[in-house]
Amino acid sequence: MTARPRSDTLRDLLPRVYRRLYDSYGPQGWWPGESRFEIIVGAILTQSTAWVNVEKALASLRAAECWSFYAIASLPQDELALVIRSSGYYNAKARKLQAFAHHVIENYGGDLDRMFDSDAGRLRTELLSIHGIGEETADDILVYAAEMPSFVMDTYTRRIVDRLGIVPSGRNPGYGAYQALFQDNLPADAPLFNEFHALLDHHAKYTCTKRAPLCGGCCLADLCPTAEQGVRN
Predict the structure, then answer these.
(1) Structural contact between residues 112 and 36, judged by C-beta atoms closer than 8 angstroms
(2) Is the whole-model pTM more than 0.85?
(3) Which of 130, 146, 133, 148 shows the shortest CA–CA distance to 47?
(4) Which residues form a coiled coil (predicted)?
(5) What is the overall mean pLDDT for the chain?
(6) What's the 3-state SS for 4-68?
(7) In angstroms, rounded to a whole number, what is the distance separating the alpha carbons of residues 164 and 208?
(8) What is residue 86's DSSP assignment?
């Protein structure tokens, strides 16, 4: 792994990275959903698939008038799976959607305001207890639906962190170690976490790509040892 050969602290570096990305790409307007219900369903459906497939599944749910937690919970699981077929892994995702729906109905009468009337740490623990909700999905729900500060770490964000040479210490650092880089060094601000994650994903998709990153035109090139050394991961 390439180490970052400079004295900047993360509290200095991360705001600079954010400003460079924001100035280059502008506001991203994430998450693409008109309601908290839609954001949550989208966060579950987007696991291991492209967003275009999620959009098709969301449209199918609307067309099937399956557009509430009560509707999701009441539909036979095999029928729900067929409705969301375009999202891939549809049998597993139907089970996950119904697990979430049942949790909200049984514990909060289907009311997300009641569910989200909690602090971020306690709500995150609760979300992780629901079948099919892993760390990334829980953080998607927290920052985009509940509007709570919990930084989302996905494959795109980790790629940029690694190439910037700020990978967490330790052997095979996990999700929490990567997340702590941001949460320990930025203000606990949900809109900031929202926009920063969206900008990192955009940058990873179109500039800091998995193969042959476009380092020559990268707005972070002078901050990035991978670009400086001409490494192509």
Answers:
(1) yes
(2) yes
(3) 133
(4) none
(5) 93
(6) CCCCCCHHHHHHHHHHHHHHHHCCCCCCCCCCHHHHHHHHHHCCCCCHHHHHHHHHHHHHCCCCC
(7) 11
(8) G
Whether residue 31 is preceded by a cis peptide bond, meaning omega within 30 degrees of 0, is yes
- Three-state DSSP state, 183: helix
pLDDT of residue 169: 84
Cα separation, 122 vs 90, whole angstroms = 29
DSSP letter at 116? T
Helix axis angle for 175-183 and 10-25, nearest 10°, is 90
Q: Which residues of the chain carry a pLDDT beneath 70? A: 1-8, 230-233
pLDDT in tens, 13-56: 999 999 999 999 999 999 888 899 999 999 999 999 999 999 99
* Per-residue confidence (pLDDT) for residue 1, from 0 to 100: 40
CB count in 10 Å sphere of residue 76: 10
From CA 15, how far away is CA 40, in angstroms rounded?
28
**Is the distance from CB of 168 to CB of 180 less than 8 angstroms?**
yes
Q: How far apart are alpha carbons 58 and 42 in whole angstroms?
A: 7
Q: Of the candidates 156, 158, 157, 147, which has an alpha carbon nearest to the alpha carbon of residue 189?
A: 147
